[in-house]
Design brief:
heterodimer; A: alpha+beta; Four Helix Bundle (Hemerythrin (Met), subunit A); 4-stranded antiparallel β-sheet; 10 strands; 66% helix; B: alpha/beta; Glutaredoxin; two-stranded antiparallel ribbon; 18% strand; elongated
Chain lengths: 658, 173
């Protein structure tokens, strides 16, 4: 009964979504405010209905209702409760349900927080979001019904994919989807702005916090995904340039570009048509990511669920949504564009560079990801483009970007003198240079050119991020008062840029100074790596709730002093018989010591992988801090002072139009 | 309308064309090393009991060998089509893979039996010899007992029409 309620709720949500698209658009066209208002209540009703469906599926999992095919395929009677709840999004059907639930959540948020928005623009925005929702609801109902029953009812489920039985994976997909789907708001608003022809500073100001919110969730999602891969895959790697990772990284790059170009459009009224295009592109890449993951068109370690008929549906949907958006853009954007003066020697000029680098980088990732398809299309055999391509393309694109970040934040709008900016950056430059030259040698007694360059860029980005807030504070007589006067938007930006530096630092060291060894070890034996001794004490067998495992005990010591005890595991999940590696890691901010059991050998020996990874934590810490920066930026008071900003927005719009 | 504003549409159209192409080519197509080789030997009892049957019993006419199991979702997907093939007079031999006799028989009772003969492979030993990745998988054997094709995943109308039927017809000559 419960699954049928869920199915019915989805059907009802589809009906509501149809109303949410049709009535408000008619209302705008015919000038009937009452019809436009329907969009708000429709969005909220839709959210409630999809939530009901979602809870029904969750209940079927908790209740272990094996008559529901999706539940039986992704759960098991011995699966712990936490994973039974998260198993809802453990495979295709439930993921898509989570997708529409989050979309409805964003829709509802737009329907609530919209004080500054003209009524017709709100109606159109919600209608566009409703249209996207229609597509995905149809997709679920027609090709991926999570509530489908099966008879005979199996005695037990086939268990959740063991790779997904990890706390990191419990929250990774929801965060990632919050980001992916969040870009739909910027998309819908760009669409509405193009339709109404009101593409002004107010539009940019309104879009900014929504975009930043989506972006910060995406940042967290990607960071968490990388951390999970590091722990769970047992290869010691944290980024694989896998098609699915790329699918999340491309919208992130374009989303980052969008955040920056929105700033230009809001402050200076420039780059309007470019900003709109980015807003469409960011969501396009989110949809493309969904398509790549769900269709199985590319080979990937993550392609958990794929089915060609589903791929065809998403492709058609992609063609309709994006085709419409790009056609609308081609029709409207030329009229909106005003060729204002853009001086390259100014903050907006540097932000334009930022955009170019980010978009080109994103295009490079796209080409690399789709390269196997190109090769296939021209019959060159099946190949996969590996990390060397991405590293080679990505490095020259990102290094200048990190350098420009430092200059950009101290440059003034409109017209700035490069000399002034450089004078303000003398001290950070000298410090970055000194640290860059010395740090790799001090830490590792080995100076590599790449490490020095990386350290220089990292320290440069971190220090220059602090210059702007520092000079704002120093300008005030009372330093404490000055500290509180710095707007949160500035703090957020500084923190995000500081994190970028931190990230570059971690990335440089972990990729240049990591050491790894594959060894054969038996109980009582040990291996030495970068001054650390890993001694294998013994291996024990134990039974988990739904798996059997061999757990080894390693003692890590340095100069005779015991630093940590590590317990890597090799697990065999009973239901599917699949083997999982649980790596064990001891970490400080400066280094990770990583042990993973590879294969059991004869006589109780094991093939063991040990890694020394300097500054690994900084990579993820930077991701989290970057997202925190985004959160601080959107808590800026100007976004909360609705009435005051409305006046400012109108004035800004008038100024930009003038 | 200036041309550069149409660029995104053009790029989108190009990408969609590429994807349409990509979807028609299955990246998971793993060629079996057994193609062109004689079918690996086995001695399996029929489902429900009886005396063991060897691989030689499959020689003399083209045959489909279908690995299935009562616990397998993909098998339910392809099942109606297998029923259709059996109605058309195609000989399909089923290998009930890693399954119990009781479950296998109940599954066949419930859904219908498209197989001329069903052999039980409870330990999955024959599946291992035949290089089965997961069920369902279907092998096409010619009259000499040589494996000429392997279908990974559910049998589809499309795969039957374009790939398998021509091979079956060719083997019958």
């Amino acid at each position: 009964m419960i699954p049928e309620i869920g199915h019915f709720a989805l059907l009802a949500a589809l009906a509501v979504a149809l109303i949410q698209v049709a009535l408000p658009l008619l209302g705008v066209w015919l000038g009937r405010p009452r019809w436009m208002e329907v969009a708000v209540s429709a969005a909220q009703t839709q959210f409630v209905l999809i939530l009901v469906a979602y809870l029904c599926l969750t209940w079927s999992f908790i209740d272990m209702d094996w008559s529901v095919a999706y539940v039986a395929s992704n759960s098991h009677s011995q699966l712990p409760l936490m994973y039974r709840i998260s198993a809802v999004w453990g495979a295709h059907e439930g993921s898509m349900l989570l997708w529409v639930l989050i979309l409805a959540g964003w829709m509802t948020a737009v329907s609530v927080f919209n004080e500054r928005l003209p009524r017709d623009v709100l109606a159109m925005t919600l209608a566009v979001l409703g249209a996207i929702s229609i597509g995905f609801l149809l997709f679920i109902l027609l090709t991926s019904d999570p509530f489908a029953r099966q008879f005979p009812v199996p005695l037990d489920g086939r268990d959740l994919n063991p790779l997904l039985q990890d706390p990191g994976l419990v929250i990774h997909p929801p965060l990632l989807y919050m980001g992916y789907v969040g870009f739909s708001v910027a998309f819908a608003f760009a669409f509405a702005a193009l339709l109404s022809g009101r593409l002004d500073a107010a539009w940019a100001r309104w879009t900014r916090p929504w975009t930043t919110t989506a972006w910060l969730f995406l940042t967290l999602g990607i960071t968490l995904g990388s951390w999970w891969a590091y722990h769970e895959l047992g290869w010691g790697g944290w980024w694989f340039w896998d098609p699915v990772e790329n699918a999340s990284f491309m919208p992130w790059l374009v989303g980052t570009a969008l955040i920056h170009s929105l700033a230009v459009t809001e402050k200076r009224g420039l780059l309007k048509s470019w900003t709109v295009l980015l807003a469409i592109l960011a969501f396009s890449l989110s949809l493309l990511g969904t398509f790549l993951v769900r269709s199985g068109v590319l080979v990937s370690v993550h392609a958990f669920a794929s089915d060609p008929t589903r791929g065809v549906f998403i492709l058609e949907f992609l063609a309709v949504v994006l085709g419409t958006a790009f056609m609308l853009y081609a029709w409207r954007a030329p009229k909106l564009a005003r060729s204002g003066e853009l001086n390259l020697m100014s903050r907006e000029g540097l932000l334009l560079f930022n955009n170019v680098f980010l978009v080109v980088a994103s295009a490079a990732v796209l080409i690399g990801t789709l390269y196997p398809l190109f090769v296939d299309a021209f019959d060159l055999g099946k190949i996969s483009v590996g990390p060397p391509y991405f590293n080679m393309v990505f490095l020259p694109l990102s290094a200048p970007l990190v350098f420009l970040v430092g200059i950009g934040t101290v440059m003034g709008w409109k017209q700035a003198r490069l000399g002034d900016a450089l004078r303000r950056l003398r001290v950070p430059f000298v410090i970055a240079l000194l640290v860059g030259l010395s740090l790799p040698w001090l830490l590792h007694r080995k100076s590599e050119l790449m490490a020095m360059a990386g350290t220089f860029l990292a320290v440069w980005a971190m220090l220059t991020a602090l210059v702007d807030p520092w000079q704002r504070i120093r300008a005030k007589k009372n330093r404490w008062f000055g500290l509180r006067q710095v707007p949160r938007a500035i703090w957020g930006m500084s923190l995000a840029h500081f994190s970028l530096g931190l990230w570059v630092l971690g990335l440089s060291f972990v990729s240049l100074y990591s050491v790894e060894r594959d060894v054969r070890l038996g109980p009582g034996q040990s291996v030495e790596l970068s001054g650390y001794t890993f001694a294998m004490e013994g291996v024990q067998h134990y039974a988990g709730p739904n798996f059997d495992a061999d757990r080894a005990r390693f003692t890590v010591s340095r100069d005779g002093r015991v630093l940590a005890e590590l317990d890597p595991e090799k697990r065999r999940y009973r239901a599917q018989g699949s083997m999982m590696t649980e790596a064990a890691v001891d970490h400080t901010p400066m280094r990770d010591l990583y042990v993973a059991l590879a294969e059991p050998l004869e006589n109780g020996d094991w093939a063991v992988r040990v890694y020394y990874k300097p500054m690994m934590r900084l990579v993820w810490l930077a991701g989290v801090l970057m997202a925190l920066g985004g959160a601080i930026a959107i808590s800026d008071r100007r976004y909360r002072l609705a009435s005051a900003t409305r006046r400012a927005a109108v004035a800004g719009g008038a100024e930009a139009a003038a | 309308m200036r041309w550069q504003y149409l660029l995104p549409v053009v790029v989108l159209a190009g990408l969609i064309g590429l994807f349409v192409f990509g979807l028609q080519n299955d990246p998971r197509e793993v060629p079996s090393p057994l193609i062109g080789k004689p079918a690996p030997a086995f001695a399996l009892e029929p489902l429900g009991g009886g005396s063991a049957v060897g691989v030689d019993s499959l020689k003399g006419r083209p045959v489909l060998v279908n690995f299935f199991a009562s616990w397998c979702a993909g098998c339910q997907v392809e099942h109606p089509f297998l029923m259709e093939l059996s109605r058309r007079g195609i000989e399909i031999v089923g290998l009930d893979y890693k399954d119990t006799d009781a479950d296998g028989l109940r599954w066949l009772r419930q859904h219908g039996n498209p197989y001329a003969q069903v052999l039980a492979d409870p330990g999955g030993k024959a599946g291992l010899d035949w290089g089965v990745y997961g069920v369902p998988e279907t092998f096409v054997l010619n009259a000499d007992g040589i494996i000429v094709y392997k279908q990974i995943g559910p049998m589809t109308e499309d795969a039957w029409r374009t790939r398998i039927a021509p091979l079956m017809a060719g083997g019958a000559e």
